[in-house]
């Protein structure tokens, strides 16, 4: 019998890690992620989870310890945010290239300077190319579900890629909401024991991390990319199986009241829930608007995105980060994804919600209206930032 | 394989090697010799994590490998963190019954740059957390893999490619960072120095370090013919001279208590050690005198510590 409980999103993540019977946690505290490693430390200290907990001295070492742990075949979890993700940057590449199925929850945070511990997507956008499967959550239920699901897809022998689960710093990580917790038997049914086929083992010596001369490096990278793209099908399949066991379904791209809408807004993460309200309000006023959310960020869901925006006249992409000199990074990628389509909506990018700046329903109405104007003007290069003073 | 050994003087040397022949170290490399001796001492029940460096490059070019034991390399500065994960991960899997119980040695290896410069933080973290592992530092006193750039382990007066001797410089102007003292300052159960000039002492210390419960650190002196510009048949001899001149004393520290392993009644002049090496050839008389004074002073300090806090 499922339980309905009120939990902070960070604690919901910790609960998913407990129910997944994780073997090793290596984490370094950083705002706004701290509640996750604190709660996990408590769970381990109370004997509610039999796991090794390594209180490392930096995020670089957190991800490095995760490499070693996954290499011996232990189910491995870490979590970080903002600067921490930047500090572990080079190690994050190694995790995917060496095919270690580590799960990491990132509490999305702005990057210095100026110092900001608050939320935006600057940290995610700096790790777009690292070869991790990446998904975004909108609420506490999703934070629990997708953390649990991440182990399943990462450890699938056909996948063996690490997974990053993104939850917005503060606006999601620190929010308490009701959610359904499953029974342990259901979790066990969905998540089999981790059997890493290439574990370091004294009975079967193996070399991990040999270096690649130019004759071999290209082939290694190509093989990695083919395997990564193939993971898309397993991602879809595992979400169908998730729905079978838990009754909640996920998809690479999810739409909200978007059927037949002339103007679509595209968002990622927890602000999508605010965006839903503006869609309700604007539709009530008779406007033809709808919402599209990217759930799966990597591998990029080209086909699903094209389907989701088919027939729309205008697509307004909302970014919580700036690619300096290039505009919103999500907007750039969406434009690239639609470029080859014969018929496609006009795409306009609007940036907002940087460094923890709140986005109200009214703000999202401005985003949509301003986006429509930009699209009409025909200029694809305007970088509009919503809510700037002076 | 582990049982077979041959007698060499008073000592037994295992015949078997977990490091296969066919690696690509330079002729006369002191590090290759140290690695081979260490592998003999470690045996088969070991998982090795290695930092980027000469030893890593020379033993693991895809698609071949020199390693007959499980071995992992990821990056340059994170070796101690990787072995932390390997050790804690293996042990929790055994504790949860997911892997059979086995006495496995966890060993991290890195050069002096990986250890005393870029990887110092990760090493300190792993020592402080008390992981059950042995760290082996191969000290050839510069970044040899990338072309003889200075490190914090490069000794005073040595000429390297990033601290070269020139018209207004003698080369390295700083004194060698004392890694054993830094490791020992974590109050770990075992820290020691070893040199390829004393192969049995080296093997014994590697074995002792591996068998120690908790963190152990062995700092191994490995002359480098390419970087030090000495004759390729001199690595072992320089490994002895460094000890006999007091430049690199052999000692052990257990929880802050010292034992000197080789204590010559009189030290040979440092000149005997410096002369065969091209990296010191530019030094004038007064600099050699200065180095002699530094060596004397440091050696006396070590002797005083060993006398004040002796290891029973």
What is the compact description of this entry?
The complex is a heterodimer of chains A (390) and B (312). Chain A is α/β, with parallel strands linked by helices.
**If you compute it from the alpha carbons, what radius of gyration of chain B comes out, rounded to the nearest whole angstrom?**
19 Å
Q: What is the rounded distance between the termini of chain A?
A: 55 Å
β-strand percent of chain A reads 15-25%
- The CATH topology of chain B comes to Rossmann fold
CATH superfamily annotation of chain B: Thiamin diphosphate (ThDP)-binding fold, Pyr/PP domains
Number of domains of chain B: 1
List the quaternary state of the chains.
Answer: heterodimer
| Low-pLDDT ranges of chain A | none
Overall average residue pLDDT of chain B: 96
CA-based gyration radius of chain A = 21 Å
CATH topology of the largest domain in chain A: Rossmann fold
How do the helices and strands follow one another from N- to C-terminus of chain B?
Answer: EEHEHEHEHHEEEHEHEHHEEHH
Strand content of chain B: 15-25%
What is the number of beta strands of chain B? 12
> Spatial order of the strands in the main sheet of chain B?
4-3-5-6-10-9-11-12
CATH domain class name of the largest domain in chain A: Alpha Beta
User: What pattern of helices and strands is seen along the backbone of chain A?
Assistant: EHEHEHEHHEHEHEEHEHEEHEEHEHEHE
Q: In DSSP terms, counting alpha (H) and pi (I) runs of 4 or more, how many helices of chain B? A: 11
Biggest sheet: strand arrangement of chain A: 3-2-4-5-7-6-13
